[in-house]
From TrEMBL:
It comes from Diaphorina citri (Asian citrus psyllid). Signal peptide: none annotated. One of its GO terms (molecular function) is RNA-DNA hybrid ribonuclease activity. This is Uncharacterized protein LOC108253484. InterPro entries: RNaseH-like_sf (IPR012337), RNaseH_domain (IPR002156), RNaseH_sf (IPR036397).
């Protein structure tokens, strides 16, 4: 009902068409999504009593017990997705450290310019200047980088000349790869003798901004902050410095290559809560898309929209236009389907002598051929006219105004 009010669709429009037009999942799918989020939260909390129930539900038991009664969350979830292989790989949170006691490193950047505004040579120069200014007798220069590609996820860090590489769980994000490289670098530095200056270069701005947050919920970032804190307590001066990637700065290029190659890499297969949540969200989207793929034609909106994703063009400046667009895409307008409400016969086109449909008006009706030509809509299919192209949608509204069709829809 809320979707019908929001999209302005008629009551004759089918509910699944409204949902796809609005980019909103059906309620049973939304339930999957929410339960996935909840399960991802609970299984990382060893004090939560639900954790054992969710993790120990067996395939065998669930069929016997819940024949006639509603199935509990853990059973429903285990029917949807089998996480058995993932349970041993959870990266559980370490002991929380009071954030007000944590000492932060210094955050710097070699240049205030952005990567696209200056030449790589300028960054190389800035890097050399920075190193000359900050490198003292007893300094450690480190680089960290992470990479995610179709071949896998890798992390690398370099402390002076010593390179270490890791191969991560394929579910890890590129952010996790960057953060893990930083964490391993800091953990290795703990065993080094005290240095006046530890310079750690990274090309990840998002990692640096997460490291600056006082209350970060990502357990990887929390552990990085604690590792930094311990290094500083030992008497080291730690600086985390941003450098642009792919600008020919030797150390950065080396770790970048190492993170992509994984040769002789150590395996680290634990999964963080953020990555597990992202994986479950992705599975939910796949399931939702399969549902839409299996909806049988005839279905007018399916001819236009084959994805369940929300379309940007559905949002317009005028609500009136949003309603019209939604009605056109669903194929139910006042002009074509008003007869259902008035209990009369379907409307006929006087010029072409055929039943009026949205497709007929926009693509075929000879009455509007000239106006279609004027706005370059003449050779387009219905899929192209009502698709997610902002320019075509603007032309479509000009066509509708010019042909006086707008108030009739
Ligand atoms: Zn016609």
């Amino acid at each position: 009902m809320a979707l019908r009010i929001a999209t302005g669709a008629f009551k004759s429009s089918r509910i699944e068409n409204l949902q796809v037009d609005a980019g909103e999942p059906p309620l049973n799918f939304r339930r999957y999504y929410l339960s996935g989020n909840y399960v991802a939260k609970v299984i990382y909390n060893i004090n939560n009593p639900m954790r054992d129930i969710i993790m120990n539900i067996s395939k065998h038991g669930r069929d016997l017990i819940f024949v006639n009664s509603p199935k509990p969350l853990a059973v429903r979830f285990s029917e949807w997705i089998d996480l058995k292989n993932i349970y041993p790989l959870l990266r559980l949170p370490s002991c929380p450290y009071p954030p007000w006691q944590i000492r932060f490193p210094q955050f710097e950047k070699i240049s205030a310019s952005t990567k696209h505004s200056v030449l790589p040579q300028e960054f190389q120069l800035k890097y050399c200047e920075y190193i000359n200014k900050n490198r003292q007798n007893n300094s450690l220069v480190c680089f960290t980088d992470g990479s995610k590609s179709c071949r896998g996820v890798g992390s690398a860090h370099k402390i002076n000349q010593e390179m270490s590489t890791y191969r991560l769980n394929p579910l890890s994000s590129s952010f996790t790869a960057e953060a893990f490289a930083m964490e391993m670098c800091l953990n290795n530095l703990i065993n080094h003798p005290i240095a006046d200056n530890i310079l750690i270069f990274t090309d990840s701005k998002s990692l640096i901004s997460s490291m600056q947050q006082l209350f970060c919920r990502n357990i990887l970032i929390h552990d990085i902050q604690v590792a930094c804190h311990k290094l500083i307590l030992k008497g080291n001066n730690v600086k985390i410095i941003w450098i642009p990637s792919h600008c020919g700065i030797a150390g950065n290029e080396e770790v970048d290559k190492a993170a992509q190659s994984f040769t002789n890499a150590q395996i680290y297969s634990l999964i963080t809560p953020v990555d597990l949540k992202a994986f479950l969200k992705n599975e939910f989207k796949k399931k939702w898309q399969i549902w839409w793929d299996n909806i049988q034609p005839p279905n007018k909106i399916k001819e236009i929209k084959d994805t369940v994703k929300e379309w940007q063009t559905s949002n317009r400046n005028l609500r009136k236009e949003e309603i019209i667009l939604s009605r056109l895409r669903i194929g139910h307008t006042r002009l074509t389907h008003g007869f259902l409400m008035e209990r009369t016969d379907p409307p006929q086109c006087e010029v072409c002598n055929t039943t009026i449909t949205v497709k007929h008006i926009l693509c075929h009706c000879t009455k509007y051929t000239q106006i279609r030509l004027k706005y370059n809509l003449n050779n387009l299919q219905i899929k192209d006219i009502l698709g997610d192209n902002p320019r075509t949608i603007d032309l479509l509204f000009k066509f509708l105004k010019d042909s006086n069709l707008l108030p009739k829809l």
